[in-house]
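2024-03-11 09:14:02 DEBUG pipeline.ingest accepted 1 chain
2024-03-11 09:14:02 DEBUG pipeline.ingest length=212
2024-03-11 09:14:03 DEBUG pipeline.predict start
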Amino acid sequence: MLRKGLLYMNTLDYFPKLEADPARSDPFEGTDRITQPQHIRHLILDADMPGRTPHAVHPKSLVGPIRVARCRTSACNIFCMFSITEPIVGPVFPEGHAWPGDHFVLFTNTPEFLTRIARAANSQGLLAVQCGMVKYYDEAEYSGETGRFRKRSRFAYLREFRIVAEPGLDGPRHFEIGDLTDITSEVTPLSVADEVLKFSPEDAIAAGLSWD
Protein backbone atom coordinates (compact mmCIF):
# COMPACT_ATOMS: atom_id res chain seq x y z
CA MET A 1 0.00 0.00 0.00
CA LEU A 2 2.63 2.55 1.03
CA ARG A 3 5.12 2.17 -1.79
CA LYS A 4 2.55 2.15 -4.59
CA GLY A 5 -0.10 4.19 -2.82
CA LEU A 6 -2.51 1.34 -3.47
CA LEU A 7 -6.03 2.04 -2.23
CA TYR A 8 -8.10 -1.14 -2.29
CA MET A 9 -11.62 0.12 -2.94
CA ASN A 10 -14.55 -2.27 -2.64
CA THR A 11 -17.85 -1.58 -4.33
CA LEU A 12 -20.42 0.19 -2.18
CA ASP A 13 -22.85 -2.71 -2.53
CA TYR A 14 -20.19 -5.07 -1.12
CA PHE A 15 -20.81 -3.88 2.44
CA PRO A 16 -24.52 -4.74 2.80
CA LYS A 17 -23.61 -8.35 2.01
CA LEU A 18 -21.11 -8.72 4.86
CA GLU A 19 -22.47 -10.64 7.83
CA ALA A 20 -19.55 -11.55 10.12
CA ASP A 21 -17.89 -8.12 10.13
CA PRO A 22 -19.73 -5.77 12.52
CA ALA A 23 -17.35 -2.87 11.88
CA ARG A 24 -18.07 -2.77 8.14
CA SER A 25 -21.33 -4.65 7.54
CA ASP A 26 -24.19 -2.22 6.96
CA PRO A 27 -27.40 -3.15 5.11
CA PHE A 28 -28.20 0.57 4.83
CA GLU A 29 -25.22 1.26 2.53
CA GLY A 30 -26.41 2.52 -0.85
CA THR A 31 -29.66 3.88 0.57
CA ASP A 32 -30.76 7.27 -0.76
CA ARG A 33 -33.54 8.09 1.70
CA ILE A 34 -35.12 6.60 4.78
CA THR A 35 -38.50 7.34 6.35
CA GLN A 36 -39.30 6.29 9.90
CA PRO A 37 -42.69 4.62 10.58
CA GLN A 38 -43.65 7.38 13.04
CA HIS A 39 -43.30 9.93 10.23
CA ILE A 40 -45.72 8.12 7.91
CA ARG A 41 -49.45 8.88 7.93
CA HIS A 42 -50.58 6.65 5.07
CA LEU A 43 -48.76 3.99 3.08
CA ILE A 44 -50.21 2.45 -0.07
CA LEU A 45 -48.31 -0.24 -1.98
CA ASP A 46 -49.29 -0.16 -5.63
CA ALA A 47 -47.42 -2.40 -8.08
CA ASP A 48 -49.40 -0.93 -10.99
CA MET A 49 -49.64 -4.41 -12.56
CA PRO A 50 -52.64 -6.23 -14.03
CA GLY A 51 -54.35 -8.35 -11.40
CA ARG A 52 -52.64 -6.53 -8.51
CA THR A 53 -54.67 -4.13 -6.41
CA PRO A 54 -53.23 -1.40 -4.18
CA HIS A 55 -52.60 -2.55 -0.62
CA ALA A 56 -52.79 -0.28 2.41
CA VAL A 57 -50.14 -0.81 5.11
CA HIS A 58 -50.55 0.61 8.59
CA PRO A 59 -47.34 2.40 9.67
CA LYS A 60 -47.41 0.64 13.06
CA SER A 61 -46.98 -2.71 11.30
CA LEU A 62 -43.57 -1.67 9.94
CA VAL A 63 -40.58 -3.11 11.81
CA GLY A 64 -38.17 -0.45 10.60
CA PRO A 65 -37.76 2.56 8.31
CA ILE A 66 -38.66 2.45 4.65
CA ARG A 67 -35.50 2.58 2.57
CA VAL A 68 -35.29 3.88 -0.98
CA ALA A 69 -32.18 3.07 -2.99
CA ARG A 70 -31.17 3.72 -6.58
CA CYS A 71 -28.64 1.61 -8.42
CA ARG A 72 -26.89 4.85 -9.35
CA THR A 73 -25.91 5.47 -5.72
CA SER A 74 -24.25 2.06 -5.31
CA ALA A 75 -22.39 2.31 -8.62
CA CYS A 76 -19.07 3.38 -7.12
CA ASN A 77 -16.02 2.12 -5.24
CA ILE A 78 -15.11 3.42 -1.80
CA PHE A 79 -12.13 3.63 0.54
CA CYS A 80 -12.85 4.22 4.22
CA MET A 81 -10.54 5.69 6.86
CA PHE A 82 -10.67 6.50 10.58
CA SER A 83 -10.24 10.25 11.06
CA ILE A 84 -9.13 12.45 13.93
CA THR A 85 -10.46 15.99 13.65
CA GLU A 86 -10.37 17.03 17.31
CA PRO A 87 -8.70 15.95 20.56
CA ILE A 88 -9.70 12.56 21.89
CA VAL A 89 -10.47 11.98 25.54
CA GLY A 90 -9.57 8.43 26.53
CA PRO A 91 -8.26 5.63 24.28
CA VAL A 92 -7.95 6.31 20.56
CA PHE A 93 -9.41 2.89 19.76
CA PRO A 94 -11.58 1.98 22.78
CA GLU A 95 -12.21 -1.64 23.64
CA GLY A 96 -15.78 -2.78 23.24
CA HIS A 97 -16.00 -1.58 19.64
CA ALA A 98 -15.40 -3.60 16.50
CA TRP A 99 -12.51 -2.21 14.45
CA PRO A 100 -11.80 -3.02 10.78
CA GLY A 101 -8.34 -4.47 11.30
CA ASP A 102 -5.67 -4.68 13.99
CA HIS A 103 -3.02 -2.31 12.55
CA PHE A 104 -3.03 1.29 11.33
CA VAL A 105 -1.04 3.73 9.23
CA LEU A 106 -1.15 7.44 10.08
CA PHE A 107 -1.26 9.99 7.26
CA THR A 108 0.93 12.88 8.40
CA ASN A 109 0.04 15.34 5.62
CA THR A 110 -3.65 15.15 4.76
CA PRO A 111 -3.73 18.01 2.19
CA GLU A 112 -0.88 16.40 0.24
CA PHE A 113 -2.62 13.02 0.39
CA LEU A 114 -5.79 14.51 -1.10
CA THR A 115 -3.77 16.36 -3.74
CA ARG A 116 -2.20 13.11 -4.88
CA ILE A 117 -5.60 11.45 -5.04
CA ALA A 118 -6.92 14.23 -7.31
CA ARG A 119 -3.82 14.08 -9.50
CA ALA A 120 -4.03 10.30 -9.89
CA ALA A 121 -7.77 10.47 -10.63
CA ASN A 122 -7.16 12.94 -13.46
CA SER A 123 -4.28 10.95 -14.93
CA GLN A 124 -6.27 7.70 -14.83
CA GLY A 125 -9.37 9.23 -16.39
CA LEU A 126 -11.74 8.66 -13.50
CA LEU A 127 -15.08 10.37 -13.95
CA ALA A 128 -15.18 11.68 -10.40
CA VAL A 129 -13.56 11.25 -6.98
CA GLN A 130 -15.32 12.63 -3.92
CA CYS A 131 -13.76 12.89 -0.47
CA GLY A 132 -15.45 13.85 2.76
CA MET A 133 -16.44 13.09 6.32
CA VAL A 134 -19.36 10.77 6.94
CA LYS A 135 -22.22 12.36 8.87
CA TYR A 136 -24.13 10.24 11.36
CA TYR A 137 -27.86 10.32 12.02
CA ASP A 138 -30.15 9.07 14.78
CA GLU A 139 -31.29 5.76 13.35
CA ALA A 140 -34.47 5.74 15.45
CA GLU A 141 -35.66 9.27 14.66
CA TYR A 142 -34.11 10.52 11.43
CA SER A 143 -36.10 10.65 8.20
CA GLY A 144 -34.53 12.17 5.11
CA GLU A 145 -31.70 11.95 2.62
CA THR A 146 -28.85 9.52 3.30
CA GLY A 147 -26.67 8.70 0.28
CA ARG A 148 -22.98 7.82 0.24
CA PHE A 149 -21.86 10.11 3.06
CA ARG A 150 -24.44 9.41 5.78
CA LYS A 151 -24.53 6.46 8.15
CA ARG A 152 -26.44 5.38 11.23
CA SER A 153 -25.27 6.65 14.61
CA ARG A 154 -24.19 3.17 15.73
CA PHE A 155 -21.12 3.64 13.47
CA ALA A 156 -20.21 7.12 14.76
CA TYR A 157 -17.26 5.76 16.76
CA LEU A 158 -15.51 5.00 13.45
CA ARG A 159 -15.18 8.74 12.65
CA GLU A 160 -15.16 7.77 9.00
CA PHE A 161 -13.56 9.74 6.20
CA ARG A 162 -14.59 8.31 2.85
CA ILE A 163 -13.15 8.41 -0.66
CA VAL A 164 -15.63 7.60 -3.44
CA ALA A 165 -14.51 6.84 -7.01
CA GLU A 166 -16.57 6.70 -10.19
CA PRO A 167 -17.29 5.03 -12.53
CA GLY A 168 -17.87 2.03 -10.30
CA LEU A 169 -16.43 -1.34 -11.20
CA ASP A 170 -18.20 -4.67 -10.79
CA GLY A 171 -15.49 -5.67 -8.31
CA PRO A 172 -12.77 -3.97 -6.23
CA ARG A 173 -10.85 -1.08 -7.73
CA HIS A 174 -7.05 -1.07 -7.24
CA PHE A 175 -6.42 2.68 -7.25
CA GLU A 176 -2.72 3.52 -7.28
CA ILE A 177 -1.79 7.10 -6.40
CA GLY A 178 1.99 6.77 -6.06
CA ASP A 179 4.53 6.34 -3.28
CA LEU A 180 3.14 7.45 0.11
CA THR A 181 6.08 6.63 2.36
CA ASP A 182 6.97 10.32 2.78
CA ILE A 183 3.56 11.24 4.26
CA THR A 184 2.74 8.15 6.32
CA SER A 185 3.85 6.54 9.55
CA GLU A 186 5.06 3.00 10.00
CA VAL A 187 2.48 0.21 10.14
CA THR A 188 1.56 0.04 13.83
CA PRO A 189 -0.60 -2.34 15.91
CA LEU A 190 -3.80 -0.89 17.37
CA SER A 191 -2.74 -2.32 20.72
CA VAL A 192 0.00 0.31 21.11
CA ALA A 193 -1.92 3.26 19.63
CA ASP A 194 -2.21 5.08 22.95
CA GLU A 195 1.56 4.83 23.45
CA VAL A 196 2.53 6.36 20.09
CA LEU A 197 -0.39 8.70 19.29
CA LYS A 198 -0.81 11.88 21.31
CA PHE A 199 -4.25 13.36 20.60
CA SER A 200 -5.55 14.26 24.06
CA PRO A 201 -6.75 17.84 24.80
CA GLU A 202 -3.60 18.36 26.88
CA ASP A 203 -1.40 17.29 23.96
CA ALA A 204 -3.25 19.67 21.62
CA ILE A 205 -2.79 22.60 23.99
CA ALA A 206 0.89 21.78 24.44
CA ALA A 207 1.27 21.79 20.63
CA GLY A 208 -0.39 25.21 20.40
CA LEU A 209 -3.51 23.90 18.65
CA SER A 210 -7.06 25.17 19.09
CA TRP A 211 -10.42 23.73 18.11
CA ASP A 212 -14.13 24.57 18.29
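2024-03-11 09:14:41 DEBUG pipeline.report Residues 6-40+60-206 form one domain.
2024-03-11 09:14:41 DEBUG pipeline.predict end
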